[in-house]
């Protein structure tokens, strides 16, 4: 309010006036609020209880760190906190984004990327995490849809007014987000158009609201990469899903993983995402699934004797010992255990490998 | 020789005798050498000029670091230098592996992995690097074939005698390796069978001979992972090609990239491999290809004015300035430059975006 008044009176700093330009003369506050009321949106300001002060704090810090210079930083890249957020949806903003992760990526995504994004969205939702994204084509909407499919709230941070569906093809998804306990969020008032520079400005809100950003697919030199670097600059986790090195849509992901200054971590599952952004001790991922093998428990001698066993014709323990490079007594000592484990067979004249399970007939 | 004599006389340490077992009584040195002569193989020992002493030095260091304990370490995992290497092929061993990289991976590889391995093999070969692998199904043979296709020497380190083709299906590839200036290398004498434990023992030679190991595809808990960890243990570079997170054959690769102690680096091209293992300054990879855009050179104001331009109906500079948030004079100052760059058009009544190149008709 004070800022608006300063602008109207012409007492705002020269640099601010230069940026705001001719718009200083326009004031649409009342019209904005009326329009918001019609579409069921509300204006959330820092004084409100639901203001997500904690997640946005790094933006405030970044703004102070960048301050003091003569010229105001480029608006499209400056890390400044939003002065207010327009919100559509019943849930409280702060509670919804408390445990949230951004899932972002290419608009021109591949079916691989969309599959992974939808899967991440669903599994993060099932684990009680809110997926925040930009509502765009490709990875963004796949992540939102995944969360919706899991019946979980999801947040779309838009580069236009929360009453506008951009892209128009996603209007049904946006309605489902609002109906499903999720939120549409924007810095711009209802009715605002999705100008290109607004996407860059908007991206810092996606990074700011969440604990970490997962990049699913990104071309070289893409907006998703920029969002990830911005998240890293705010001290948020940058998590990257790799893809085929033959896919142009994963080049940006692999670049992020090769860069050292973003601290980007490779993730392959929602469990690994939650482990990275979750609270220590409560959100640990299981290690990747590993096939169990009856060979696992074997000692060195037993494994070597087993490896020395022929497939068909049985041979003597002495011969096995010679091949395995151990004492015949040692071989005789481990063979009974291998037989009990159904790994070797006594043919009557010698030892051989037992047939694999399935092809085996049990003795009556 | 001294070791063989000590074993025959029974004066070798107890632990060594326990490991060698009944084979202490067998001596096939002369038969081995005769068999080697028949298949055109030679025995290379540390005293030979072509012994790759420098690459193998970390194995010697590791053996000393692990020494002094009562019990000899498990043979299948111990990092000890080879006592000698059986070699088939005309090239000198040390010169061939001086600039070499191991390319290893799953036997049950996917077509993606084979494509990437063949491509790496060919491009490393073209850059003058020798591809070292194990001659196995899947990634190994794809890498060898890629190098052969580029007319470059490649080295297969076998877990059996250099006169045996294992797997038999690769006998033609092995002959092409020998004929193409490459080498077949083994720790075991001609005629030796490919026992399972020999593959694990062999893997340390692959890691030892090369400057770094590239893992192309690896299942969880796989031999390729073990080779990579072994390479890391020897202070060699571990380089990993990522893949789709939906592929079981890339799980091991992604695990390696998530582990912090191997120092594994993600690579997507031969250029990045060479950069990682090559000599500083001479082997730098180009950055990933980025599409150039006429927007690149634009200043902040110009970009915002451009973004404010409508697609069809032209609007005034004042209107553009209002949308872009700058002074109308500022907008008028940048519009001519945007027009020269063919980014905007004057319709006669206002400014709009220029149609993209290709759809554009030039003025006569």
What do these coordinates show?
The structure is a homodimer of 364-residue chains. Chain A is of the alpha/beta class. The first copy, chain A, folds into two domains: 40-277, 3-Layer(aba) Sandwich (Rossmann fold), CATH 3.40.50; 300-353, Arc Repressor Mutant, subunit A (Orthogonal Bundle), CATH 1.10.10. In chain A, 42% of the residues lie in helices and 12% in strands. The first copy, chain A, contains 15 helices and eleven strands. Chain A has helices at 2-9, 14-20, 29-39, 53-66, 93-98, 111-126, 139-149, 171-179, 196-209, 223-233, 251-258, 270-277, 300-308, 317-324, 328-340, and strands spanning 41-44, 85-88, 100-104, 130-133, 154-158, 183-186, 212-215, 237-240, 265-266, 344-346, 351-353. In chain A, the strands form two sheets. The first copy, chain A, has a nine-stranded mixed beta sheet with strand order 1-2-6-5-4-3-7-8-9, sandwiched between helices. A two-stranded antiparallel sheet of chain A has the order 10-11. In chain A, strand 7 (212-215), helix 10 (223-233) and strand 8 (237-240) form a beta-alpha-beta unit. Chain A is elongated, with a radius of gyration of 30 Å. Residues 67-73 and 360-364 of chain A have low confidence and may be disordered. Chains A, B: Residues 80-277 form the Smf/DprA SLOG domain.
